[in-house]
Amino acid sequence: MGSFSVWHWLIVAVVVLLLFGGRGKISGLMGDFAQGIKAFKKGMAEDDKADAKPAEPVKTLEAGAQKTEAERRAEGVRS
Prior knowledge:
The chain has a domain at 1-53.
């Protein structure tokens, strides 16, 4: 339970260099994370818009079976 040895400090140094070394790896990761959240929110908003559209009324046989007076007369002439 004493102080850290040289090997412990080397491992800590390597981990710190991996995390903070290079060209802003942490800021790059945070930027990618933020873009992912924005894309997720945009996708959720698009789903809400798609659900909000009223559905087209269902066409039934009854609606198609009703003929106008002119159609009935035209059929009467043909027969």
